[in-house]
Amino acid sequence: MKIKRIDQFSPRPRTRLIRISTDIGIDGWAESTLEGKPKSVTAAIEEYSEYLIGKNPLTIEKHWQQMYRSAFFRGGVHNMSAIAAIDAALWDIAGKHYNVPSYNLMGGKVRDKIRVYAHWGLQDLSDESKSASKERLKHLSKLGYTAYKSGPPGLWRAHEPPSRIDEFVEIAYTLREWVGSEVELCFDFHGKMTPALAIEVCNEIKGMRPMFVEEPVPQENPEALKLVSDHVTFPIATGERLLNRWEFREVIQSQAVALLQPDVAHCGGPSELKKIANFAEIYYQHIMPHCAIGPLALAACMLVDSVVPNFLIQEQVDQALGNGLLKEDWKVESGHITLWKKPGLGVEVDENEATKNYNGPEYGYHAELGGETYFKDDNSVADW
Ligand SMILES: [Mg+2]
Predict the structure, then answer these.
(1) Strand ranges across the sheet with 3-12
(2) Helix axes 60-69, 40-52, angle to 10 degrees
(3) What is the 99 CA–ligand 1 centroid distance (Å)?
(4) pLDDT tier at 371 (50, 70, 90 boundaries)?
(5) 250 C-alpha vs ligand 1 centroid, how far in Å?
(6) Number of compact structural domains in the chain
(7) Other C-beta atoms within 10 Å of 207: how many?
(8) Does any domain span residue 359?
(9) Among the listed residues 105, 140, 125, 148, the one whose alpha carbon sits nearest the alpha carbon of residue 270
(10) Neighbours of 352 (CB within 10 A)
(11) Is the pLDDT of residue 280 over 90?
């Protein structure tokens, strides 16, 4: 079997896919979306195609090593996202070739179903927001979710007055009151705060017992993350913007956080995500892979979630369950997705939909990340 061609598609806003075709008719699919960077990963995959075409798709680890090491300049989010998509598509091909779910080729599953959380919260304390929030909670509760994530809305300065902090704290306690103590609630600070402000806010919400706070500060400085962790009683998480084992090394070894959130579509794919998880296992850290994109990225996450012991919970957004790209959507039942029995990554892509190319108003650098609005009230640049 040889790789015959690699095609790329952009069928929805913030959705880019690759299809690796072989000379014996087996295709592998994966997601190559890098939010806000619609063209650069596509270009990187085109460059790697020159190396991959004509090669055996089953030597996955060798291709990973070639793409990561042999090109001399290493890492970077565009490069690692391109490697990630190719790696996931090759795992899909391997599973289909051997006619087994790809997890059988990664040591076999250690669990039967994957616990997932949904995005749900409360934008502000107005009656309108409260009733919209309760409506969504009603819908999600029927699917049996046992964990939800939201975050402090808006932009944050290095410090904020008590009223700003208090509003978020009240939101957090309101959510707890609504769901009771059987459900877990977590918050993504999106790296918008300074260590001092994050510690203050975390200590204000600790009484409502969050599951974790994600990216209280940006991911670039593990010592700043450790400072927060050392002053907070519940778990701190990070990792969606860390790109491979070497970028995770200090966060893991210094135990700067308790929970790791590699993004399978940016960290080098399932091959690398598994290695990050195995490394973290030594420190009793658990993975909760980041997945804010589509159903193929979710499949690639669940491939690894199914084979490592130190998996806690999987992120997914509504569009990750299908978004019109699959013949059969992922189903959430009792807050879990049951592992697939189909060969490969367990999804059958609807090729009529997946091979379309979207070029509407939500396409492009600014539109994909919500517009050019990230300035504080003094017109200085704010974190996203
Ligand atoms: Mg996040």
Answers:
(1) 3-12, 15-22, 27-31
(2) 120
(3) 35
(4) low
(5) 19
(6) 1
(7) 11
(8) no
(9) 105
(10) 9
(11) yes
CA of 266 relative to ligand 1 center, distance in Å: 13
Tell me: pLDDT of 375 over 80: no
**Domain containing residue 319:** 104-345
> Which residues are catalytic, by number?
190, 290
How far is it, in rounded angstroms, from Cα 208 to Cα 95? 44
Give, rounded to a whole angstrom, the gap between the first and last alpha carbons of the chain. 44
CA-closest candidate to residue 188, choices 164, 136, 153, 158:
153
Taking the CA atoms of residue 83, residue 85, residue 87 and residue 89 in that order, the dihedral angle to the nearest 10 degrees is -150
pLDDT at 27 over 70: yes
CATH code, domain with 247:
3.20.20.120
SS3 of 118, please? strand
Mean pLDDT across the chain, nearest whole number? 95
pLDDT band at 72 (very low <50, low <70, confident <90, very high): confident
**53 C-alpha vs ligand 1 centroid, how far in Å?**
35
Residue 316 belongs to some domain of the structure: yes
Q: Which two tokens stand for residue 42?
A: 């596509």
Tokens of 284: 């009793």
| pLDDT tens-digit series, residues 219-239 | 999 999 999 999 999 999 999
Q: Does 48 reside within a domain?
A: no
Between the CA of 176 and the centroid of ligand 1 the distance, in Å, is: 20
Alpha-carbon distances, residue 195 vs 157, 215, 225 (angstroms):
12, 10, 7
What's the chain's length in residues?
384
- Residue whose tokens read 């030597």: 59
Return d(Cα 120, Cα 204) in angstroms, integer. Answer: 20
Within a domain: 376: no
CB atoms within 10 A of CB 316: 26
**289 alpha carbon to ligand 1 midpoint, in Å?**
10
Four-residue CA torsion sign, 76, 81, 83, 84: positive
| pLDDT for the residue numbered 370 | 65
Amino acid in the structure at residue 63: H
Q: Are 348 and 324 in contact (CB under 8 A)?
A: no
Cα of 190 vs centre of ligand 1, distance in Å, is: 5
For residue 85, how many C-alpha atoms fall within 13 Å in the half-sphere facing its CB? 32
CB 28 within 8 A of CB 90: yes
